[in-house]
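pasting input
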Amino acid sequence: MMEYSYIFNLEQAVESLEKLKKNRYLFLDTEVAVKNEKEIDFFTDKVRLIQLGDYENIFIYDMFLIPEFAEYLRPFFRDRGIVGHNLKFDLKFLKTNFDVFPEIVFDTMIASQLLSQNENEKHSLQAVTYRITDKYLDKSQQTSAWGIKNLSQQQLDYAARDVYVLREIFPVLRDRLNKINTPHRSTGKIKEIFGVENPVAAVEMSFVPQLAKIELTGMPVDEKALKEMLREASSEYQRKYIEFVRSYGVDPFSPHKVTAWLSGKLGLQLPRTQKGSLSSQDSALRKYTDRKEVSLLLQIRSLKKTVDKLKELESHTVGGRIYSQFRQIGAPTGRMASSRPNLQNVTRELRKLFRAPEGKKLIVADYSQIELRIAAEYVNDETMIEAFRSGRDLHRFTASLILGKEYQEVTKEERQMAKAINFGLIYGISPSSLMEYARNNYGVDISIEDAKRFHSRFFQVYSGFKKWHEQVKEKLRERHTIEVYTLLGRRMVVSRFTEAVNFPIQGTGSDLLKMAVVFFGKLSGDINASIVNLVHDEIIVEVSREEAQKAVEILKESMARSGKLLLKKVPVEFEAGIVDTWADK
DNA sequence: TGCACCAGCGCC
DNA sequence: AAACGGCGCTGATGCA
């Protein structure tokens, strides 16, 4: 039997806090009256209920009836933690509706994701509850009418139930996280209040309110310039599209029809996809750009991309700002994923549209060659570590070692080729794929013989990488799946070689970025600076002109600090500039 | 008509 | 034996 109190007058509400105040953390959930289920609006939708409980009591506050209760909650949450599921959602609504913003949180959804051992696992409260308690959580009231005058018994029961299950799953999740072996144990508020010792969990939990703020802030965009560019790109696209279809009668966006036409009528040689069909991808067509059909096709595709992206951006612009949504753990590596709109795949060309408003500046900062640095540290390759320590340009250095040339005499092309080798080979690319990869991504043509030579030279020169790859292969021969860890202790179970070597590197990169963001949040309290976008190894901040200099120093300090915590042997470097648009450097 | 899947391509 | 990984968005395609 589950008991709870539905509270609709202020006196009782304040009284209830007396009962709860002995706790260091509380369980929290909210119910929101949503106008349009498809598009939840954090700025205009209204919070109806706040549910708050400890292990004894559950209180449901009707915020339509006692909005003044927010005044009491604000100080109450100042040094108390809250436990909830997908708290980014609740935090955003508490902030916009009541200017209440708890910053010490334990998110059971994040916890479940960190513990997950397989990709197909769901992390809804319902799914997590079922896995842990074997109980089925009925969510049918979730989308009920939370705006009606008198809430039904079912609605109140449902609201209480969410809190009830939180107190069952929280200790289980926390203990499971603490059992994971990690290189160090966490310290700080999250540890003190929730008893979280897993450092990855501590970073992720600290990150939740930071990400909520980022989403609420949005990214400034030059709306006029965006619209203008969309107009121009659209008309150019339409013109060329019509010209193409009229001339050749082929749908440029049907790979099947395009390949049939190009290889049949025009007799072009095209590579095959993995499944065996002919490929019409740009990189395969690029060698035929002297033919006007191919050149026009490539132009149309590229224009279409631009138009689509501009439309996507425009449709999410409100009052000169773009509000994206981030999935905090978008990939198992810990990287985030951005959507509606995706702000993590904006082209160089379009970045100039993101402009600081009058009187403000942007700070654009990114880590330099961070994955190679992490890889060098992770596999403990002395040659690569030494190259970084002595401040060498790693691509140039690799070229000189592989080609047996003086460092100074490496040409631009040779450096470019080495770049492909560096990035490809640390992740176990094969010689033939290396050829492909170098051509597609770095515009470098090499023969298969050269690719083989470079491949073996790379592992000869960087023997730490050779050892690493061999060890991973050996372990995967012994067992079907193995556990791999980032430098912070993020864990993943993998079964493929490429996953096994990629995860620790990419994952450590996301550890690093998230830690930098958390540090920035702590250190920038006195100034008016907000992070407005994050792109894997890049941080973009919006700040007043006057405080830009201070902000950039704090950002650099934050990025350096997280770098030093994770990388002990390899120096971490980054660039940071005060600019007007995202495209400036 | 809606859904699942893939190809293609933008970013790191 | 061979393998670079991670995303989201659009639109074609095949199937129910």
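fyi The mean pLDDT of chain A is 93.
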